[in-house]
Write a structure and sequence with these properties.
Elements lengths: L1 H29 L13 E4 L2 E5 L9 E5 L4 E7 L8 E6 L5 E6 L8 E8 L5 E9 L8 E11 L1
Parallel strand pairs: 3-9
Antiparallel strand pairs: 1-2, 1-4, 4-7, 5-6, 5-8, 8-9
């Protein structure tokens, strides 16, 4: 009789373990629930730790101004961006809209962050508009040529 009980008990334990392993495999296979945000924050780019522009801000909205000496450093980064995204910024002369340069941020990883990069202000002293292009991680849209910040190089 003890062999029968231990055999039944063993069969129940094995059955329970199979259910638990199957449930764990299902959780791993499905990942995040449908509709869950891929990034912890809404997409935004920033300069010098401030001067933030969000994906919901107007493309040609108001911009903050950063004063930087010739050969001074300005830092740019982003957060809430699509994984594998390379955000970039185009620089234009404010006086006539002439294109000056493009610089590319760091590629985002699973944390949706484009780490800060340092840009050397080597442009001729004057006023410049910096415009950002990036892909938000949660909305699935694309932000193109968003007025981000005014640089006054002196």
């Amino acid at each position: 009789m003890s062999t029968f009980v231990s055999h039944r008990m063993r069969a129940r334990v094995v059955g329970l373990l199979m259910v638990l392993v199957s449930a764990a495999a299902l959780v791993v296979a499905t990942g995040a629930p449908a509709g869950a945000a891929a990034c912890a924050t809404n997409a935004h780019v920033y300069a010098n730790g401030g001067f933030v522009k969000y994906e919901t801000d107007p493309i040609d909205g108001p911009v903050g101004t950063i004063y930087v000496p010739y050969y001074g450093v300005v830092r740019f980064g982003g957060n809430g961006l699509k994984q594998g995204e390379d955000p970039f910024w185009d620089v234009y002369r404010e006086s006539n809209g002439a294109y000056v340069a493009t610089f590319v941020g760091t590629r985002t990883r699973s944390n949706c962050v484009s780490n800060e990069i340092e840009i050397l202000a080597r442009a001729t002293p004057g006023n410049y508009i910096v415009r950002a292009t990036y892909e938000p991680g949660n909305s699935g849209g694309v932000v193109r040529n968003q007025a981000h910040v005014r640089l006054i190089v002196y």
